[in-house]
Amino acid sequence: MINCIYRATEGEGVFVGRSQVFVRYQGCAIGCVNCDSKDTWDFLSESTHSTEDILNQVYDEGFGGKIKYVSITGGDPLHPKLLPGVMELVLKLKERGYGINVEAAGSRVVSELFDQVDFVSFDLKTPSTEVKTPIENIKKMLEFYAHKSQIKAVIASREDFDFALNVKKDMDKMFGPTQTSWVLTPCYNTGEMFPMERFVEVINWNEEAGGLFRVIGQQHKWIHGPDKKQV
Ligand code: SF4
Asked: How close is the Cα of 201 to the center of ligand 1, in Å?
């Protein structure tokens, strides 16, 4: 179940600016209220994409295989309905020498997949999303995947920032310094003008807290506007 496959420059997180082919899976049952990909929520009963089809499209979108990094996103590619297809794709991409990032919504730590990919971008859902990330999942990420992950939180308010800060401080007490990057993404909603004030606030709050996070916005939305898809 694929929503779309497209070439774009990574717009957020620690790999901002990197050319990638995105494979966006269709289907998500998590329900973040500020989701900017609500068109990916429905699970379609029929898949029209075989793994071979996906590999061919990744190759074509990447200018005949020149772009060698793939980001698997959604939707929720870790949902049990999607996972078997994702696993098959990941193993075939690896055989072909691609580097692979997976976007994880924070609701599941899937070792069979995370062990295979190069990087996991793992969400810490903040109060404004009205979804909760089990803290056990953050602990597992720090314990097993700190060397190849970022923890990413969307910040829409001071409440979101304080929540992320408390989690970060608790994890620092438990694990000490780790290689994981903790990233704050100032919320930039669809249909909204560029929220400069919110960005400046998040930057200031982070500085006041000692700069425990990297504040990284969604570059693709600055460039193309918040509503444009597949960029
Ligand atoms: S997990 Fe991602 S796709 Fe699913 S609702 Fe949340 S933001 Fe949207």
From this structure: 24
pLDDT per residue over 53-62, tens digit each?
Answer: 999 999 999 9
pTM of the model: 0.95
Q: Euclidean distance between the first and final Cα of the chain, in Å?
A: 20
Q: Is 103 in the pocket of ligand 1 (CB under 6 A)?
A: no
Q: What are phi and psi of 69, to 5 degrees?
A: -120, 135
**Quick check: CB of 82 below 6 Å from ligand 1?**
no
Angle between helix axes 51-61 and 83-95 (nearest 10 degrees) is 50
- CA–centroid distance, residue 75 to ligand 1 (Å): 6
pLDDT recorded at residue 139: 98
Residue 149 identity (one-letter amino acid)? S
Specify the ligand 1 atom closest to the Cα of 103. Answer: 2
| Per-chain mean pLDDT for the chain | 95
Per-residue pLDDT at 46 exceeds 70:
no
* Cβ neighbourhood burial of 75 (10 Å; 0-12, 13-18, 19+): buried
